[in-house]
Every structure is written in structure tokens, then in C-alpha cells.
Write a structure and sequence with these properties.
about 0% strand; about 55% helix
Amino acid sequence: MENGYSSWKSTVAWNQEIPHYYGDYVRSLFIAMAVLSFVVMPLWGDLLPLGIIPQVGASLLLVLLAGLTSARNLPLMIANATVSAVSVVLLESFAVLLHHTQSTQLFLAREAGVLLMLGALYFSVKTLRGMFTGKIGHQDSPLEFDETAEPIVPSHPSMPFDPIE
């Protein structure tokens, strides 16, 4: 401990991940989806045929969520999973419904968006699972499922020692 500061380092770098936290992947997929949307719009048309303003707003929402994503924010990870799921439903619906009336490039761009959002949904749900089980930031133990091993968590968490001993 130097100058009163601990030597703890942030583990959000790509090579040092927080166990059970996949927000960095969600962040990357959201940014990729926003870029795809902004590139496709002027070339082939709207990914979401709801108008320009909703599509730009949806892309900005993805960037906003990407910037705010954190391993400590449960409501934000729920929002990430919800936005990903709604995006998959909307993009795939429009891809299937409009695939005969619009260009093949636009269809393929929507399908690429669906794949990006499916990935974001998957990693958001994995992170939510880690949050709900209290495993974010904790390494798995090979003894976790061994019934003969000593319990990792004491039976009475409020008592730091066993009073019988």
C-alpha cells in the first residue's frame, strides 16, 4: 500500500476480465449495431422502417447503454437484455416481412443486426445470471459442486467463527 492507496487495478481491460461479467462484449456489440445502423441508413434504407428519428434514437440509445454498462448496475444490465431482446424481435420481424419488397442488401443488414443483438442478449443474460447468483467478480471453485468438500460459505454468515469449537 503506497501513499494510502491500494494496489487494486481495474479489471475491465480485455486481457483481465471480471469473472462472470460480459458487459464489455455487450458494449462492443451495441456500438457495432449503432455503426451498422448509421452506415446502412444512407446506403440502403432504414433497418427499422419506423422513420429516421426512431432509428437514430434507437442507435443513440444503444450508444448510451454501451457507455453506462457496468458490472455494478443491475437495472442497467436488465435494460441491456430488454433492449437486445426487443431489437431482435423488431429486426427479424421486419427482415422477414419486408424481404420480398426491399433490397437483398437491406435484408442482409437486418440479419447482421439480428446476429449482433442476439450476441448482446446472450452476454447480457449471462451477466444477469452472474449478478443474480452473486458471482460477479468471484472465481469459480472446482469444489463448488463437490458434495464431500467443506462448504465455501459458512452456514451462519453473520458469525465469523463456529461457536461450538
